[in-house]
Amino acid sequence: MMHRSLASQDGAEGSAVAGSGNGNSVDPSASQHATPTSQVATPTSQAATPTSQAATPTSQVTSGRAGSKRKLTSAVWNEMESKLENGEWKAECNYCHKKFALGPRAGTTHLRSHLDSCPARHAPMGPKQQKLRLTKGEGGKVNVENIIFDQEKARKDLALMICEHEYPLSIVDHSGFRRFCSSLQPLFKMVCRNTIRNDIVAMHSAQREKMVNFFATFKHRVAITTDLWTSGYQKRGYMAVTAHYIDDSWNLKSFLMRFAYVPCPHSAEVICEALYECLVEWHLERKISTITLDNCTSNDKAMDILPDKLDTSSLRMNGQLMHMRCAAHILNLIVKDGMSVLEHGIERVRDSVAFWSATPKRHEKFEKMAKTLNIEYNKRITLDCKTRWNSTYTMISIAVQYIEIFEKLKAREKKFKRCPTKDDWKFAKEICDRLKLFFDITELFSGTKYVTANLFFPKVITIRLAIRKWGNSDNELIQKMSEEMKDKFEKYWKDIHGLMSVATVLDPRYKLNILNALYGPLYGREHAATEIEKVRKLLIGLVKQYKDEVEGEDTWDAYVAEPVGEEDEAMKLYDLYMSSRPTVPSSSIHTELDLYLEEACLPRTQELDIITWWKVSGSRFPTLQKLARDILPIPITSVASDCAFSTSGRVLSAHRSRLTPNVAEALMCMQAWSRADMLGGWDSTLFATFQSVLEDDEEEMDESTSIITQE
Questions:
Q1: Less CB within 10 Å around the terminal CB: N or C of the chain?
Q2: Residues 51-86 pLDDT 10s
Q3: Cβ(111)–Cβ(45) under 8 Å?
């Protein structure tokens, strides 16, 4: 019987062999002396490699060919063992016990290749070193804890660090970074750029598989937001797809699903196909609640095509309520139309800011004047971008704080000839007050850490009431602005999205009362009654659809903060309605919807965690509870997907423009998942996948990674 050489590659086999030739045996004592040498030669595999002491003492140190006297001198035999099975010689890996063919022409190249990629061999990832750490305990006591250096964990954390903080992949090749890591832990074995890239891709693939499997068994609906972005350096289009849902523990979740490359042209068909493939891959094609997109022609057409690809019978109301327009985008269109008539009124303010921020010398003069006048200069004056109204608002809101400085500099600087007049400053303040309403509501709508669906209806009505009020202004420009905004508002929000009205009714502070309070003054009693009846019928239809799907939920402990805005016109009307509403005697309750609507509303001023309320108090209304669980996570803007592009602009910078689409997606998703604390534990299954791709081959740019096949 044969076995692998226990000596090192430099020819030490001869010292361990008692005799050679056909049938000559190995001296058992020599074998025992050779074993420590093997263990020293491969210190990183002591824990996993079976020692040669278990080998048969009569094993031969010969090649895999029967009758050959040639010694096994290759280093692979330190980690492989030859065995005779069914009359054929096999090489067995000491780590994973996989067997390979041996023969006169087989050689050892295939054995060496296996050892380089064997997951079991690389499992320990290097040495572990136990140290002591002193920590401060209670009462000033010092505790002694054991620390074990783990190469596996250190390498994983290095990959996550690069993803989270957008470091270049080449940081692992920087000599300074290598010296720093070596000084922290000399045992850490640094990897190269190609290896860390493959690590990140493997981690992303493994984690994505876990999350896809999660959604395969997820029983509730998921809201989707998506948007397109073109990289300025790569000239490639990417689609960000974000999921929003309430998990089994009733926690509000929002995370980036895909950052997928989408080839040109970005037509409605291409967008639809890309989105559909993503939904199918994540098992969400039958679990969609809504899809929120920016308001553009290609998106509208894509949403017209998508229902033909889906099984609409599995969707809410046969998919009629699936399309949601981004509220922030519509607000932007409304304000831009209004701002188009105000350019002349704020021209001098813009010119003044441009003058004093044009050069460092002028800005220093502005700062010195602020100190001279004892005015705190904590917000730097900044010129706006004319196509972005929020930057115009920021410019004006800062400039009006330093009116006195502008006036003083006007008398001292001869070149400063465009100082605003008192009327200009008065008009700027009026504009600032009006834009603040849009700015605050846009910021409120853009949140992803709290529920926004129940805020949509009252805030949109607040905007509509404010626009109508501005039409009575004494300033002609304000009146024109009001008319422009009104036309755009009616174009997009003449009819409030049905689900958003339902979400407001599901807020126990409002219910149907807020519709009665706001629709009346806005549209008149007759039209208001019609609109309210539409919402009521929609709510009844949804309750019927959910009636047979009610499931029990586990107890939970969660907190989702909901911001409380300032007093506004809509809430004043609501309070007035509630104070004057006649008391209606209780009638016979036939359904849980009637029971919910008949119960007294909670105080409006009460800070309410609406998800908590529906989990705990909503257990009395199981059908409505399930409905609320699917509607409340719906985002009213696509900001969650847009945020990915703010990051991607840095990830796909000029210095990283050669990143392939799959690496770019891995970097983006791993960063988003890590920041959302969704990576969970690093178990052995994930680590096995992580190890399987540790190849240092240079990756070429490959257009085949597209999620869409070009014909």
A1: C
A2: 333 333 333 334 444 444 456 778 888 888 888 888
A3: no
* Closest C-alpha among 35, 448, 430 to residue 242: 448
Q: Report phi then psi at 261, rounded to 5.
A: -70, 130
Residues 622-636: tens digit of each pLDDT: 999 999 999 999 999
CA-based nearest residue to 225, from 437, 444, 390, 447: 447
The answer to whether 328 touches 445, Cβ cutoff 8 Å, is yes
- Tokens 């100190």 belong to residue: 371
560-575 burial, b at 16+ Cβ within 10 Å, e below that, comes to: bebeeeeebbbbebbe
Contact by Cβ (8 Å): 1, 84: yes
Question: Which value, to the nearest 10 degrees, does the dihedral of the CA atoms of residues 349, 350, 351, 353 take?
Answer: 90
pTM strictly above 0.90 = no
Name the residue with tokens 């909503």. 618
Which secondary-structure segment (H or E) carries 654?
Answer: none
CA distance 672 to 701: 24
CB of 457 closer than 8 Å to CB of 504: yes
Alpha carbons 103 and 65: distance in angstroms, whole number: 6
Written as six digits, the tokens of 585 are 């005697």
Q: Which residues, in sequence order, are CB contacts of 350 under 8 Å at separation 6+?
A: 383, 384, 395
Strand pairing of 88-93 and 80-85? Answer: antiparallel
